[in-house]
Design a protein that fits this description.
The chain is of the alpha/beta class. 36% of the residues lie in helices and 16% in strands. The protein has one domain (3-306): Arginase, Chain A. The strands form 2 sheets. It has an 8-stranded parallel β-sheet, with helices on both faces. It has a two-stranded antiparallel sheet with strand order 3-4.
């Protein structure tokens, strides 16, 4: 099973203040783990820089233009208290967009079985017209919409296991019956959305909230019954994962107690669904994960599973 790994050094240039959890060391932690010889079979490529217009697949052009215009040449510009633009941010987020789109192109063309895009900042909190929660452009949502527009995918499943609910992805696809957004997340927790009752205009929003303290056994039961069954019934042509690893028990920003083995299990389960319904086509896009140790362990398990181990 060929797995494409997409990243770029520009991910390190999105600067944040000291103490900010969404820091460049997250990418360094991933790179260190993937240097292990067990990952020598990864097909590695650099994320291309997308034109900003690609972001208009899910964001209005005036929002995209405002983000581009706000990008500073020095210092930091705050979108909100924890969502920042530095001189390197625009390049980083446009390469994150480009990497996500490239991964979809490669998977849909059969050039690889699946792909993992490790870029920052994350994206799933970015709503149609508002950046928040560290996020500016919603890279996973762009990937899902690109699969529809460029490759004619009739149905796309966007599965989000980040510990924080992807309010941005839910907002973007609320009225879109061709994209199923399915999320498991801790609740209550930032951003406050993600109740079971939030189902979308066409019943294609699936929220399976977990309680603080829930462990891997609870997660697996909820994921199997609440997420996998719905995604399989949807019969997607491709699956996109918003792969946040902050539900790991070491993570400082939440209170779930997952281990890296749980992320490997969830990955393999989604691969099974992709194999049955989507010719194996699956693209994973990095979201959160703020314990460097937990992130490294989780990515290792995730990529192991993508590679068929």
């Amino acid at each position: 099973m060929t797995t494409l790994y997409v990243s770029h050094p520009a991910a390190l240039d999105h600067a944040v203040p000291d103490g900010h959890p969404e820091r460049p060391d997250r990418i360094r932690a991933i790179e260190r783990v993937l240097e292990n010889e067990r990952f020598a079979g990864l097909v590695r490529t650099l994320a291309p820089r997308a034109d900003a217009a690609v972001a208009t697949l899910v964001h209005p052009s005036d929002y995209v233009e405002a983000i581009v215009a706000a990008a500073p040449t020095e210092g930091l510009v705050a979108i909100d208290s924890d969502t920042l633009l530095s001189p390197g941010t625009l390049e980083a987020t446009l390469r994150a967009v480009g990497g996500a789109v490239m991964a979809v192109d490669a998977v849909m063309a059969g050039e690889c079985a699946n792909a993992f895009v490790a870029m920052r900042p994350p994206g799933h909190h970015a709503e149609r017209t508002r950046g928040m929660g560290f996020c500016l452009f919603n890279h996973a949502a762009i990937a899902a919409r690109h699969a529809r527009v460029k490759h004619g995918a009739a149905r796309v499943a966007l599965v989000d296991w980040d510990v924080h609910h992807g309010n941005g992805s839910q907002d973007i696809f609320w009225d879109d019956g061709a994209v199923m957004y399915a999320s498991t997340h801790q609740m209550p927790l930032f951003p406050g959305s993600g109740a079971v009752s939030e189902r979308g205009a066409k019943n294609t929003i699936v929220n399976v909230p977990l309680r603080p303290g829930d462990d891997g056994a609870v997660f697996r039961e909820a994921f199997e019954a609440g997420i996998l069954a719905r995604v399989a019934a949807f019969e997607p042509d491709v699956i996109v994962i918003s792969a946040g690893f902050d539900a790991h028990h070491l993570d400082p920003l939440a209170n779930l107690r997952l281990t890296e083995a749980d992320f490997g299990w969830a990955t393999r389960k989604l691969i099974e669904v992709a194999d049955r319904h989507a010719k194996g086509r699956l693209v994973s896009v990095l979201e959160g994960g703020y314990s460097l140790d937990g992130l490294g362990r989780s990515v290792s398990a995730h990529v192991d599973a993508l590679m068929g181990r």
